């Protein structure tokens, strides 16, 4: 099993993620591509001391980018939508 800090790469702060956090009690995270749902759930519960109800993951393909006549590709990455249990709250950015 991977370390908890190897599984989580960081929170995703987007407009859609903020709306999901306010209305549906869901939080978006960028995670390691090899991490599974069980590892993600355990990492979030250990780091943030909250109870997780459900984890949904998505594999996102990196975009192709051109620089002149040369073509490159951004890396593939994985994101997780974490649903917290009723009454649980995750405020890692509220104090800023």
Describe the structure.
This protein has helices spanning 4-7, 15-24, 37-48; strands at residues 8-11, 26-31, 52-60, 64-67, 70-73, 77-84. The chain has 96 residues and is α+β, with helices and mostly antiparallel strands. The chain has one domain: RRM (RNA recognition motif) domain (Alpha-Beta Plaits, 2-Layer Sandwich). The strands form two sheets. Strands 1-2-6-3 form a four-stranded antiparallel β-sheet. The longest helix is centred in the middle third of the chain and has 12 residues, at 37-48. It is globular. The model has no long low-confidence stretch (mean pLDDT 91).
Helix-strand blueprint:
Layout lengths: L3 H4 E4 L3 H10 L1 E6 L5 H12 L3 E9 L3 E4 L2 E4 L3 E8 L12
Antiparallel strand pairs: 1-2, 2-6, 3-6, 4-5
What fraction, in percent, of the residue positions are helical? 25-40%
- The gross shape turns out to be globular
- Biggest sheet, spatial arrangement of strands: 1-2-6-3
What percentage of amino acids are in beta strands? 35-45%
CATH class: Alpha Beta
The CATH homologous superfamily name equals RRM (RNA recognition motif) domain
Number of strands: 6
Span of the ends, CA to CA: 33 Å
Low-confidence stretches: none
Q: Summarize model confidence as the mean pLDDT.
A: 91
Helix/strand/pairing class, anyone?
alpha+beta
CATH architecture: 2-Layer Sandwich
**Number of separate domains:** 1
Oligomer: single chain
Main beta sheet: strand number and arrangement?
Answer: 4 strands, antiparallel
Provide the gyration radius in Å: 15 Å
Order of helices and strands: HEHEHEEEE
So how many helices? 3
| CATH topology assignment | Alpha-Beta Plaits
């Amino acid at each position: 099993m991977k370390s908890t800090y190897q599984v989580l790469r960081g929170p995703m702060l987007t407009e859609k993620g903020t709306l999901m956090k306010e209305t549906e009690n869901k939080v978006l995270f960028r995670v390691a591509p090899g991490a599974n749902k069980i590892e993600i759930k355990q990492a979030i519960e250990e780091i943030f001391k909250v109870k997780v109800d459900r984890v949904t993951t998505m594999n996102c393909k990196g975009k192709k980018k051109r620089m002149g006549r040369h073509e490159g590709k951004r890396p593939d990455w994985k994101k997780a939508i974490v649903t917290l249990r009723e009454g649980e709250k995750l405020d890692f950015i509220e104090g800023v």
